[in-house]
Amino acid sequence: xxxxxxxxxxQVTTAMPVYPxxxxxxxxxxxxxxxxxxxxxALHLGSQSGTHVDAPYHVDVTWPTLDGLPLERFAGPAVVxxxxxxxxxxxxxxELLAPALERCxxxxxxxxATGWARHxxxxxxxxxxxxxxxxxxxxxxxxxxxxxxxxLSVDPTPDxxxxxxxxxxxxxxxxxxxxxxxxxxEPTLAAHRVLLGASGGGVIAENLTDLRAxxxxxxxxxxxxxxxxxxxxxxxDGAPVRAVARLG
Length: 248
What we know:
- The radius of gyration is 19 Å and the shape is globular.
- Strands 1-13-11-5-7-9-10-4-12 form a 9-stranded mixed beta sheet. Strands 2-3 form a two-stranded antiparallel ribbon.
- It contains 5 helices and 13 strands.
- It is an alpha/beta fold.
- It has one domain: Putative cyclase (Glucose Oxidase, domain 1, 3-Layer(bba) Sandwich), CATH 3.50.30.50.
- Strand 2 and strand 3 form a beta hairpin.
């Protein structure tokens, strides 16, 4: 059977989904053939836009930046953990990862197939499953330094709260009256810190697309390799990638 290439990358488009608070994405013509003889796009986007990788510097200024990591961190043989069917905001434990981690070792890229790519562009995309700290520790203990997920983050994404200003104001008033905690908690990024802070520096790839073809190949005994090479940005916390899998 001939090898198959599978694109795991979301298209970069104007107003595409981004992590709450991240820069909006805008693509617009800078030059056109009508006025300058060539077509050139002007791009405005954040380092964490679309399908991207995180470098350790993303969560700690004393940790390696993107250009300080070896190229080997961005490619390798992959093991896919089948996490489909989980409820929104499910905490992924070491037990759920155990079958996949048994097949992992140094140099393995672990891909988390939650099935959440199907919710891309909807509010439900924010309610993805996420790793517990213990699960992240188990991944690192298995020798894995590169983890990818078909969701917005390996950590829980905070609920952005109601869009209606009147509802938001009412909730704020209720919180003040009862002297309670803010209903929207700041993310701790605990799993990020464990994975990215691993010895030698780790990498996290987020917003991968549908991983079903990879799961099917793995079940059929076909080798799966993945490449997640980022833009070569200087001193960066991360960068968009063209994520591609090769099914042997």
